[in-house]
Amino acid sequence: MTSRYAPSRGRPHGHPTDFSKLRNVNGAFNHPSSSRSTQFQTALSTSRAMTNGNWRQQDQRPQVAFDAQYTPSPEHQGLDAKQCSVMTRHVCSLGMIIRAAVHEQDFNDTPGWAGPGDDIHSVISKCGQIYSKVRWMIVVAVYENHNLTIPLYTHNGRGLDNKGEQAKKEYVSVRDDRHKDNFDSLSRHRKLTAEMKRGSTLLSRKTVAHLTAPVTRRYGLLVEQQGNLDRDSMRRLTKLWYDQMVSTQPE
Question: Do 213 and 153 meet the contact criterion of CB atoms below 8 Å apart?
Fold first, then answer.
């Protein structure tokens, strides 16, 4: 699901990419060299057409020399081109709040569920139904080749209303610092405070971080940097996450 075409290595770390010059009105990638553009489109079509045979053999197909200037379109990932940048090890930091595309197996495609999922977020792959959505996340661990994030949810505006007391222990409320009046935590944990960038979307009062469902993300992927947790909140989130992950039995 994630594009294999790397962004330009000459671009400064964390610098927003000008995507408007890369695609024409039909959604195709522009390039001064028509032969390179043709190579890209041919390779992309070949990848999409590989619906038979062992998926492990895909990497054995003939390789095409791609130009480093080819960059995935942020619009195709549900992101804002004006706010996008490529996440790198250099810019990634603990407590960073990002928006990014997340792809996971759709539970609607499993026995016992109605399925299929909605047409907006679900697609069919060779390995089953995939659910894709842009999610808010907080970076909780930084490694050499990837980072670990805690996803944020509102559960369709219901918060934790439909969660049992045991499940609520796995969540912690996140308060947007632009909410100046009283803010009630939805779980027993003390709320976290997010210091958001000017112009970013106001987080719902029902926003919670799911401590036990971290998401792994490699560097080189497009993200929108939306803000950071304050220092005290980051310290408490790290401890909460660690305590939940090392606890093997429910209380």
Answer: no
Nearest-5° angle of CA 238, CA 226, CA 156? 80
Helix-, strand-, coil-residue percentages of the chain, each rounded to 5: 20, 25, 55
CA dihedral of residues 64, 67, 73, 79 (deg, nearest 10): 120
Q: Is the dihedral of CA 18, 82, 149, 133 positive or negative?
A: negative
Tens digit of each residue's pLDDT (9 = 90 or more) over 95-115? 999 999 888 887 765 555 555
DSSP label of 134 = E
**Could you say which DSSP state residue 144 is in?**
S
Task: Name the residue with tokens 């964390």.
Answer: 14
pLDDT at 117 over 70: no
Distance separating alpha carbons of residues 141 and 230, to the nearest angstrom: 16
pLDDT higher than threshold 70 for residue 120: no
H/E element, 173: strand 171-176
Residue 174's closest CA among 94, 239, 237, 98? 237
In this prediction the pTM is 0.66
